[in-house]
Design brief:
This protein has 15 helices and 16 strands. The chain has 398 residues and is α/β, with parallel strands linked by helices.
Length: 398
């Protein structure tokens, strides 16, 4: 399919190509390239996707067009001043394709024993050296401008998945106020030329884009209110945050089903931090365009492979003499070359290559799943694809 660009003064463009129910296939135009959606974005927390070289992410069997960076971690080390001085995050890490940075809100949420939230922002102790730090909507925007990512996330407050109504409302309202502050400071920084990654391509403005985040825990009425207030501020795209943080799977699906379809139809929809291959397919069916998750590399480092027939634990003794690839339906570089027996040997011997190869396969598997999802939507076969994919996953590895 030819990837076409349109002339516009926007920072970001999204074009609908096909629909199948609520599932959408489209083109996301960023200043560093055009991305077919739905898309899975590998997570590069510290400026690297753990265990996978950028050359491999750009190879034909993966072909990742966009990855994530983590504002919280890069702010603490090496620091935004260092990254800016070295030309922004793209040049610093050697990645020329698109980058999205999170706001740091979720990482601060995860430091529940070390943080204190107030109207101005969050005070917390660094997990590196214990020093006192302060992160606010304004600071988050300033750090992300120094990083020069192509897509910036507004600073939000993420409540736990089981948050009661009172706690969830307070968090949602704080997120709404922080969204306005994020947008205001973001616009000031763009006008001042503070964006370290400015690049004019695809007929776009060349500035960073910014996404707003919908919160509200499991309370659907609060989620609807959060969406309305976030849209009122106005963003280049919209994200659903605060899921996959301990709630039941059915709760996550219910929130996505309620919130994704009424999001602005001409803007990309991003479900943050989700999830398994099943989650990706189920949430595409509910209207989501963009995903990220650490599972492919985290599970790979711990000896687990995602396959078309479910998860395979390479440490299992049954694979010790198995000559088959991890997934006989997979055409990634690892499955074309290596056996389960060899990969188990590497893992059991403590060879780092074992985790590297499993991580590569997992990322290739996730990215190939999204390729097949896009093709199924464009051909009007997504309902059948979804049924067969989920049946395959549940059938079990042989």
């Amino acid at each position: 399919m030819e990837l076409r660009a349109q002339t516009t003064a926007q920072a970001l463009g999204w074009e609908l190509l096909a629909r199948d129910g609520e599932a959408r296939a489209g083109l996301l135009r960023t200043r560093r390239g055009v991305i077919e959606t739905p898309v899975f974005m590998p997570v590069g927390t510290l400026g690297s996707v753990k265990g996978v070289r950028f050359e491999e992410l750009e190879a034909a069997d993966t072909d990742a067009r966009i990855i994530l960076g983590n504002t919280y971690h890069l702010w603490l080390r090496p620091g935004p001043e260092t990254v800016r001085a070295l030309g922004g995050l793209h040049r610093f890490i050697g990645w020329e394709r698109a980058l999205l940075t999170d706001s740091g809100g979720f990482q601060v949420f995860s430091l529940s024993d070390l943080r204190r939230v107030n109207e101005e922002g969050v005070e917390f102790r660094s997990h590196l050296d214990g020093r006192l730090c302060f992160l606010s909507p304004e600071v988050s925007m300033e750090v992300q401008a120094a990083l020069g990512s192509d897509i910036v996330m507004a600073f939000d407050e993420c409540p736990p998945g089981e948050a009661g109504r009172e706690q969830a409302r307070a968090s949602m309202e704080l997120t709404a106020r922080w969204a306005r502050r994020s947008r205001g400071r973001f616009d000031e920084l763009q006008a001042a030329g503070a964006d370290a990654g400015r690049a004019g391509e695809n007929g776009l403005s060349g500035r960073q884009a910014i996404f707003g985040i919908v919160q509200g825990a499991a309370h659907l009425d609060l989620r609807r209110e959060s969406l309305a207030r976030t849209v009122e501020v106005g963003f280049d795209g919209y994200a659903i945050g605060g899921l996959s943080v301990g709630e039941e799977k059915a709760v996550m699906y219910a929130v996505v089903e309620e919130i994704a379809p009424p999001m602005p139809p001409d803007r990309p929809r991003y479900l943050m931090g989700v999830g398994t291959p099943e989650d990706l397919v189920e949430c595409v069916a509910r209207g989501v365009d963009m995903f990220d998750c650490v599972l492919p590399t985290r599970n790979g480092r711990n000896g687990q492979a995602f396959t078309s027939r479910g998860r395979l634990n390479i440490k299992n003794a049954r694979w010790a003499a198995d000559p088959r690839p991890l997934d006989e339906a997979c055409a990634c570089a690892v499955c074309r070359r290596h056996s389960r027996a060899y990969l188990r040997h590497l893992y059991m011997a403590g060879e780092m290559l074992g985790g590297v190869l499993l991580s590569h396969h997992n990322l290739a598997s996730f990215l190939d799943t999204m390729r097949r999802v896009r093709q199924a939507i464009r051909s009007g076969e997504f309902t059948r694809f979804r049924r067969e994919f989920l049946e395959g996953i549940s059938s079990g590895v042989e």
